[in-house]
Amino acid sequence: MSKIEIILSNIIITVAIVTAFFYLNKSEFLGNNDFTLQKDTIFINQDNSLSLNEEITNSRNTIITNTVKNVSPAVVGISVKEVRQYQYNSPFENHPFWGRFFGNQVFNKEISGLGSGAIISADGYILTNDHVAGTADEITVTMSNGKHYKAQKIGTDLTSDICLLKIDAKNLPFIPFGNSDNILIGEWVVALGNPFGLFDVSDKPTVTVGVISASNMNLSPVENRYYTDMIQTDASINQGNSGGPLVNSLGELIGMNTLIWTAQGSSGNVGVGFAIPSNKLKKVISELKNNGVFERNFWTGLNIHSIDEGIAKYYNLPNTRGVIITDVVYNSPADIAGLQPGDIIKQINDFNVDNYETLKGILQNYKTGEVVNIKIIRNNTELIKSMKLSKRK
């Protein structure tokens, strides 16, 4: 046999052996490995998909959504009933005969109302507006878990529009107070509440988000209620939101939603709402809790007048902001403090005095016995005088 034939025979035999061996072990070398690879590939793809969905979900959770989740259980809906007395003026009032039978009549009518509130302690103290529950005869609080409680009125203050309620419950979720003096213009805030009674539909508060638009806003009084040092926000506030919390992104209560600014012919939100600052809330509710009332039976002995253009020109003032003292009662708190006719009052503590109305409103922030520092201009010189708000004798 030639050398070439021997080589060809060896090649054929080798190929036959390899082919037979591969065929006999096909399931091990190909089938199982292919299945394993395919299986692993599917598993890896599913894992990536789950991870991607989780990342998307987590990216939707922001500090705002977390705050809403934490705060919502401490927001309540408030429904009130009040019996009001009305008088019907009869056209026969002065008739000599029919007047005895069909004269003026007095009748009672039950009035219902809605508002919002915030739980501020684990033992059931709730904060709301005086104009929500201050004159109510019956108050029902609806929790976010659907439970209803009859509320007791601990105290209410018409002047500051603050009312403190209490329900008989324990271990409740509550919103901690923040420091309203540290708010930042432009920071995110969340307003929660019961606009148009929607809380009763789902047992959940309505949430709106905005920013702090301005602070230290002094507004005109409304029905003997004085709104000074207010927080302005563009978070939507509508009818029924009154008494609800305004919280910062940390979930701290920095204000109580109270007023909205409406366009002519509208009763809804136009992006301008106002909240009572938390530091004022804390001061008033402390008095309501301890005494049931915020005592303001002090006097000053001051007679004042708003500054007009003529007064500003005479005293060389740069503008008409402030008030001028026209008279001081002898031996009054103002007299004892050293205030004199002709003094221009520009500031009381940290409050700027714009006119007579703002000064009157500013003084409503203080209780009997407190001392206020008054910045005045006398003979073109700035002076500070301390006046104790003494009880009227």
Topology:
Elements lengths: L2 H22 L1 H35 L2 H9 L3 E14 L10 H4 L2 E15 L5 E4 L1 H4 L4 E5 L5 E3 L1 E6 L4 E5 L21 E6 L5 H4 L3 E12 L12 E4 L11 E4 L4 E8 L12 E5 H14 L10 E5 L2 H6 L8 E6 L4 H5 L6 E5 L2 E2 L3 H8 L7 E8 L2 E8 L5
Antiparallel strand pairs: 1-2, 1-4, 2-3, 3-7, 4-5, 6-7, 8-9, 8-11, 9-10, 10-13, 11-12, 12-13, 14-15, 15-16, 16-17, 16-18, 18-19
Question: Could you please describe the fold and organization of this structure?
Answer:
- Residues 27-44 have low confidence and may be disordered.
- With 393 residues, the protein is an alpha+beta fold.
- The protein has helices at 3-24, 26-60, 63-71, 99-102, 130-133, 199-202, 278-291, 309-314, 333-337, 356-363; strands at residues 75-88, 105-119, 125-128, 138-142, 148-150, 152-157, 162-166, 188-193, 206-217, 230-233, 245-248, 253-260, 273-277, 302-306, 323-328, 344-348, 351-352, 371-378, 381-388.
- It is globular, with a radius of gyration of 37 Å.
- The chain has ten helices and 19 strands.
- A hairpin with a 2-residue loop joins strand 16 and strand 17 (351-352).
- The strands form three sheets. Strands 5-4-1-2-3-7-6 form a seven-stranded antiparallel β-sheet. A six-stranded antiparallel barrel has the order 8-9-10-13-12-11. Strands 14, 15, 16, 17, 18 and 19 form a six-stranded antiparallel β-sheet that branches.
- The N and C termini lie far apart (143 Å).
- The longest helix has 35 residues, at 26-60.
- Helix content is 28%, strand content 32%.
- It has three domains: 74-166, Trypsin-like serine proteases (Thrombin, subunit H); 180-291, Trypsin-like serine proteases (Thrombin, subunit H); 302-388, PDZ domain (Pdz3 Domain), CATH 2.30.42.
